[in-house]
Give the backbone structure.
Amino acid sequence: MAKKTKQRNHTGVKIATGAVVCVESEIRGDVTIGARTVVHPKARIIAEAGPIVIGEGNLIEEQALIINSYPENIIPDSEVEPKTMTIGINNVFEVGCVSQALKIGDNNVIESKADVGRNVILTSGCIIGAFCQVNTCEVIPENTVIYGSGCMRRVQTERPQPQTLQLDFLMKILPNYHHLKKTVKAGHAAS
Amino acid sequence: MASLLQPDRVVYLVRGEKKIRAPLSQLYFCRYCSELRSLECVSHEVDSHYCPSCLENMPSAEAKLKKNRCANCFDCPCCMHTLSTRATNIPAPLPDDPTKTAMKKAYYLACGFCRWTSRDVGMADKSVASGGWQEPENPHTQRINKLIEYYQQLAHREKQERDRKKMARRRQCMPLAFSQHTIHVVEKYGLGTRLQRQRPGAPLSSLAGLSLKEGEDQKEITIEPAQALDEVEPLPEDCYTRPINLPEVTTLRQRLLQPDFQPAGASQLHPRHKHLLMKRSLRCRKCEHNLSKPEFNPTSIKFKIQLVAVSYIPEVRIMSIPNLRNGKESQVLLTLTNPVENITRVSLTSCEENDPDEINSTAKVLVPSKELLLAGKDAAAEYDELAEPQDFQDDPDVVAFRKSNKIGFFIKVIPQKEEDTDVTVSFKIRHDFRNLAGPIRPSEEGADTAAEAIWLTHHVELRLGPLAS
């Protein structure tokens, strides 16, 4: 409990207007969600070791886990500087993926059941294929596709298109079937 | 415990040209010869060709013309997945009025797995959904075709020579075995004789009779021999100093899937048409009866003829193994399942000394000496409540349980070797087999007798697992 009060400088979840966040999703810690982002039920966004800032137009599907946790789950005894996890715009986190990457750019797609480690930095247009586990310590160059059981890589010539159609559809349909979390205007800007 | 049910734990010996040990699920049973057959002692014949993605059937002649590739479907050159056609709307000037633009549909190929698109190699979007995609032309096609024609002619001539010699020796009433041999030989230069037969003036097929037309109207095809060059293209100057752009280099697999071009760079990887798969039928080599014949329709997985061993031979499976210790006797529980509908009698015998088949066993085995009775497989038994359970009077030392057409029985195993390998035992299983496929001969008494039962013996080897440490 003491740990929680230390972190609660900016308390709770800040949801911008226009974002659709279902009530069944689990959001803990200091999380900022941008406009036009859709968070499906059963998605989990957990900010343990620092705040999470999510940009606009992102699509976070069911059972996706975006977690800013301490490395190897060891809570340090001394006070460590909380690192912010930034997620850009137009990203897609498909069903069941796990993302711990501290910095994610724009237009990336993390496919189903993929696992992205903490030391990976995704730039723009990257596609992490289904069930690929990327726990290296590197910056993934733009427009890279990681696919296959051996995590083969290739570079594609164009970035994946933003899922505007899907986002519009979900923003219309989800409120018909789920209760949404109320939007909370950001009191102070997220760091 | 599921590892005990793995198919390779219990293998049956097939006495063919080679001695093959295979699990019963992979064997066939020729009920005319009354013998087990494995995939190596049957002849495989192509039944039909079909495309695995669009499931379109293709007659064999057309398949050969198209080099066994589908006309509609493409393979991703990067990950070998099937490509799908996607459409986008692009603004294009109207043909009537160049100033206005209308949305036209443009199609491109994309791979769902590795996200490769046809735009990556520079292929322009097509305006038709299918049929617009061309494979790049091989620059050496002409020379290759000429070479193929020349060698086909050569092979044809050789075959005629051989046929002429053979006709003198073989009788006319054995066309089947005779033709099979010549077919295998002529096919060695590809494309075969079918296309040649259609040419006027060429001799008719050698399957029926032989026409020894010597004066053929085919013109002699000559080829120029390949010429060796002294000078080779020099390597580029920056060959050693230029840094490698790794995403651009193709893998060996990607390269060798296109043997015509073998591109070194990923920007030259063009999609190829998808390979056709084929359905095959199996034929016993001794009696020439079909053992397995699939249905013609590519969407159907059933068989017209399916003489698999599991539907005729009782199957032995391992049920539980105690801890095995070297030199100590342990009881292993096995099950026997009866696949046929009549009662089967099974007797087991251990292998004698110096049995040539027993090369793998590392333990001595004591099998039950009494005959085991297996009830027939009755599909309606579970619904029939009034049926009396058949009373078999099993010896509880031998038979552990009995359940419809299955029994569990004990064998005693004494491991002999102290090594680290698996304990293997083998024994012979002898059962009666009623051949219901034979012709029904009207008996003299007038009553219809059951088919004659013949006794079949199989050699079974079981791999029980390592010794308990």
In short: The radius of gyration of chain B is 32 Å.
